[in-house]
């Protein structure tokens, strides 16, 4: 760039920033400028904080649900898998597969007196299941190993146990979608089960999931000698789709595979969509602040018409005048965005401590674990979110300065100086 170009750029930035932070401005213009800066601070702070909280909720949801959900499944396209042991050994010998567990699953109705609740009853081998999921760690009463004891035992999610009003040692009735033919007629198949354990992962499975032993499931949900499918745990949760493709290539063609992203993917896609929608809504706060910058610059152009005329007579070009007012607007916006980003990062990294402080101050529990599954507000700050918010705010601010700057460049110096 030539020396003349550098001079134009330097004087435009200098004058523009001088206009932004000068104490000799019109009082009303100063108030509008302050409001636009505060709008930027509020918008950027809110965006960074809310995105961090949503990241925290997404992480909590992913960790809680995926602790219970296996990484992958292998099922037969023609019904159950009768000889599942050799297939399980073959799959488990693969490099990316850590463990395999059989299962039988069906939808049932649980009843305790007049209280009914629909749910999913899954028959498992407790020892093998412990290798593919974290159910044993989620037990809050009883144990998963109790399913291996003789008799028909069941382990329930905590929310379901609360709804059915049962505890460890209580009995409940389960009705399965099978029919029993007797001399008196055809009746739905039902069985009385003993509650031997309650688990809690702090997510939706607590409300519908129940487990029984594999032999009990083969009798109750059958009769059958095989299983519905195999559950897999892979080396890495996020590479499970690629691992399941490798598994599909090494097993018989009549078997189908799926991974957790297919069974739970819609839930996490909904979380991502919610984050995007909330981001766009909060970005409207920044957009309103940007419109305030337009108002500030329009008033500033009207106030500085004499200065513009003098600069034009001294040789300043239209591009230089535009650069002055673009610098003027971006100076205001940059201060607001910088303060907002700093406050947003500070708030996002300390939101849990702030929540606890407010709870102690007001004597109220804001997040009841029995209702929200969490005891404090989770927050995960991603610097990519901070950069995206700052960049989007700067772009909106830049667009907001263009029209007033263009109006300033069109001021005719002769017409202004005629009345001076």
UniProtKB/TrEMBL annotation:
InterPro entries linked: ABC3_permease_C (IPR003838), Lipoprotein-release_system (IPR051447), LolCE_TM (IPR011925), MacB_PCD (IPR025857)
ABC3 transporter permease C-terminal domain residues: 281-412
Principal subcellular localization: membrane
Residue ranges annotated for the MacB-like periplasmic core domain, each copy included: 34-234
Localization (cell): Cell membrane
Keywords annotated in UniProt: Cell membrane, Lipoprotein, Membrane, Transmembrane, Transmembrane helix, Transport
Entry membrane topology: Multi-pass membrane protein
Family statement: Belongs to the ABC-4 integral membrane protein family. LolC/E subfamily.
NCBIfam families in alphabetical order: lolCE
Name of the molecule in the record: Lipoprotein-releasing ABC transporter permease subunit
Organism: Candidatus Seongchinamella marina
């Amino acid at each position: 760039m030539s020396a003349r170009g550098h001079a134009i750029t330097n004087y435009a930035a200098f004058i523009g920033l001088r206009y932004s932070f000068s104490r000799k401005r019109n009082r009303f213009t100063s108030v509008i400028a302050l409001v636009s800066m505060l709008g930027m601070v509020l918008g950027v702070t809110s965006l960074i904080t809310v995105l961090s909280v949503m990241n925290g909720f997404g992480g909590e949801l992913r960790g809680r649900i995926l602790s219970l959900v296996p990484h992958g499944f292998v099922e037969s396209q023609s019904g159950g898998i009768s000889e599942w042991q050799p297939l399980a050994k073959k799959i488990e010998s693969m490099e990316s597969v850590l463990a395999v567990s059989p299962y039988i699953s069906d939808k049932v109705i649980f009843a305790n007196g007049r209280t009914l609740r629909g749910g999913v009853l899954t028959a498992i081998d407790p020892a093998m299941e412990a290798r593919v999921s974290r159910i044993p760690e989620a037990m809050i009463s009883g144990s998963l190993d109790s399913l291996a004891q003789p008799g028909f035992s069941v382990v329930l999610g905590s929310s379901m146990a609360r709804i059915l009003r049962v505890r460890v040692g209580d009995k409940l009735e389960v009705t399965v979608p099978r029919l029993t033919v007797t001399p008196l007629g055809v009746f739905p198949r039902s069985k009385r089960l003993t509650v031997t354990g309650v688990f809690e992962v702090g997510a939706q499975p607590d409300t519908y999931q129940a487990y029984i032993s594999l032999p009990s499931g083969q009798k109750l949900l059958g009769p059958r000698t095989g299983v519905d499918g195999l559950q897999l745990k892979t080396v890495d949760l996020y590479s499970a789709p690629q691992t399941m493709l490798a598994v599909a290539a090494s097993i018989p063609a009549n078997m189908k595979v799926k991974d957790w992203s297919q069974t739970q993917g819609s839930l996490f896609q909904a979380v991502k969509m919610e984050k995007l929608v909330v981001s766009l809504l909060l970005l409207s706060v920044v957009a309103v602040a940007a419109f305030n910058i337009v108002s500030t610059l329009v008033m500033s152009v009207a106030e500085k018409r004499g200065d513009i005329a003098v600069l034009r007579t001294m040789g300043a070009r239209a591009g230089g005048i535009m650069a002055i007012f673009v610098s003027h607007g971006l100076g205001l916006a940059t201060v607001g965005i910088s303060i907002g980003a700093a406050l947003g990062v500070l708030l996002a990294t300390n939101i849990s401590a702030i929540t606890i402080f407010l709870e102690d101050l007001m004597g109220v529990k804001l997040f009841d674990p029995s209702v929200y599954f969490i005891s404090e507000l989770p927050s995960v700050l991603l610097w990519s979110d901070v950069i995206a918010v700052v960049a989007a705010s700067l772009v909106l601010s830049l667009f907001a300065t263009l029209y007033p700057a263009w109006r300033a460049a069109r001021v005719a110096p002769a017409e202004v100086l005629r009345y001076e």
